Amino acid sequence: MYDAFAYDESVASTYERFTNLLGKVAEADETSAFLERLSRGGCALELGVGNGRVAVPLSERGVKVEGIDNSDSMLELLAKRTDLIKAWKGDIADFSSEHRYDLVYCVYGTFTLLSRREEQIACLRSAAEALKENGVVVIEVRVPSLDGFVSGQKTTAMFVDHENTFVNAVLHDPINQHFISTILWFSGASVTRLPQRVRYVYHQELDTMAECVGLGLTERWGDWARSAFTNESKGHISVYRRTSL
User: Fold this and answer.
1) Of 51, 35, 74, the residue nearest 224 (C-alpha)
2) pLDDT tens-digit profile of 154-167?
3) How far is CA 139 from CA 27, 31, 149, 218, 240, in A?
4) pTM of the shown model
5) Structural domain containing residue 139
6) Whether residue 157 is found in the same domain as residue 57
7) How many domains does the chain have?
8) Does residue 34 belong to any structural domain of this protein?
9) Nearest CA to 125 among 16, 242, 4, 6?
């Protein structure tokens, strides 16, 4: 069955330019520095590795990185970029690996692309089972913003420069904790449509789900520069360790 929210070829072909315009490519060095510290130079597994935006600079820091992604197109982009990262197609909500890792990480809100609570818990369980005894799980998610919705709808300009405009139209489904969005990317005379559905979680729920699978919070930061997580933070990076073996 066709999934309107999957990362198909049309999304993969524009992903690098899209993330570059939003500053995510430039942020990757800061992200990889944060993750290198936690991996202690060992081995890491990225859930939703995509085109290697984070995995490649992390591997260049001496960490052995592997990855999982459910998109053939994104995995092809990664393979064209480097042959240093072992990656395979899989479901981050239900995966297993014979290897054990010092670090398992999921960044850029990829965790919330799992649209059911059960899938998110299963992802955390699989991540915990893939850890070495002293390994850590790192999850980056956005803080849900419910401001500005009128009758469950909101439209905002995400990004504007002299060539590009991103307009994000979002529907809020509070029963399922879903944001169903369509980003319209106007560039010159062309328009690209980027649909997405996320199941948002607050940090308290994320901690509870982690506890359900034997993970306990050890650090939480407001950004990759390790700024404090406050009421003003737009997202957070949460670090978990196994509480039971």
Assistant:
1) 35
2) 999 999 999 999 99
3) 16, 12, 27, 12, 8
4) 0.91
5) 9-143+201-242
6) no
7) 2
8) yes
9) 242
